[in-house]
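Action item from last meeting closed. Structure (165 res):
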C-alpha cells in the first residue's frame, strides 16, 4: 500500500513537470498542460531560411524570391497541433489561440476556423487530430507566451516561446 502511494505521488509529480523542446531554431517551454495541444514556432528568420533553400532547389529568379519573402509574417508563425478523443473536440472552431508578451499584454487572439479533423485508428481506438497556424504580424525578438484554449472542455495549455534560441 505504501509503495503504491509513493509510486502514485511520483507519477503525479512527473506529469506536472515542465518540459522544453528546441526545434526550428527556437525553444518552446510548456508552462500549463490542461489539454492535448502542442505547438511549434518558426521565426521570421527561420521562414526566410526555408524559403531561400526552396528557391535554390527550384531555381527561382531573384524577383520571385523577393516577392515570396514579402509574404512571410514578420513575427513568424505558431503551428498548433491538437489531438482529441472525438471529432468535435479536434475541430479547430472550438479552439482559441492567445499570444501575449511575458508581462501578459495581449498581442493577438485568434479563433480557429471550422476545419474537420483528421483521424488515426489503432487497436486502442480512434484519435482525432488537427493542425492550425497563427501568423504573427509584428517582430517577436523576445520570449513570448502562447495559450491554446479548448472552448468545449474549457481547458488550456500554455507555452513560452524563446525565438531563435
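Sequence:
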Amino acid at each position: 500500500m505504501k509503495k503504491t502511494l509513493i509510486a502514485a505521488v511520483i507519477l503525479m509529480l512527473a506529469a506536472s513537470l515542465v518540459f522544453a523542446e528546441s526545434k526550428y531554431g527556437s525553444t518552446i517551454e510548456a508552462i500549463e498542460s490542461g489539454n492535448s495541444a502542442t505547438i511549434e514556432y518558426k521565426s521570421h528568420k527561420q521562414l526566410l531560411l526555408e524559403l531561400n533553400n526552396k528557391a535554390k532547389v527550384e531555381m527561382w529568379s531573384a524577383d520571385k524570391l523577393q516577392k515570396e519573402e514579402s509574404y512571410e509574417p514578420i513575427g513568424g508563425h505558431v503551428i498548433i497541433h491538437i489531438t482529441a478523443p472525438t471529432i468535435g473536440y479536434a475541430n479547430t472552431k472550438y479552439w482559441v489561440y492567445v499570444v501575449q508578451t511575458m508581462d501578459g499584454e495581449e498581442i493577438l487572439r485568434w479563433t480557429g476556423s471550422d476545419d474537420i479533423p483528421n483521424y488515426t485508428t489503432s487497436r486502442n481506438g480512434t484519435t482525432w487530430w488537427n493542425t492550425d497556424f497563427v501568423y504573427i504580424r509584428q517582430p517577436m525578438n523576445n520570449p513570448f507566451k502562447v495559450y491554446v484554449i479548448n472552448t468545449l472542455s474549457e481547458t488550456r495549455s500554455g507555452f513560452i516561446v524563446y525565438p531563435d534560441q
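Note appended to the action item: The first strand starts at residue 20 and ends at 23.
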